[in-house]
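Please review this pair:
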Amino acid sequence: MMLFTEVRGLPVLSRDGGRRLGVVTSLTVDAASGVVSHLRFRAGRLRGETVLAWEAVRSLGPGAVRVGPVTARVGPVTAPDVVPPGHDLLGRRVLTEAGVEHGTVLDVAFDPRSGRVLALFTTRGELSAGRMMGLGDHALVVRAG
């Protein structure tokens, strides 16, 4: 198990570890399936954000993320259905489907091998990942209960 806050800021290295590609900025989650779908990183302050499908992650540990080939770059030529919006779960407002406030996401526990989200830690306590319904510009929507 790892936490999103442990991954943010890690160096992203080529598969063989010979080249530093950038630093992790965030992980994108498909809320409906409850898995990390993409890794986002930046090579420098003035460079664009690079987005890799989770399948490109070869290993993830406390010291670095090793990835395969860079396959997608966010920009005007990237179709929205290919790379999802970069809605970061950390700091995201949490609402039930009925619109009831359930705090803000402080951290997310996930399996670094599969990318499966295990739990959400909010300002109002822990939530099961199975309660996630959707993630958008405004909030993370979860099932009441």
Remarks:
- Helices lie at 4-7.
- The two ends are 25 Å apart (CA to CA).
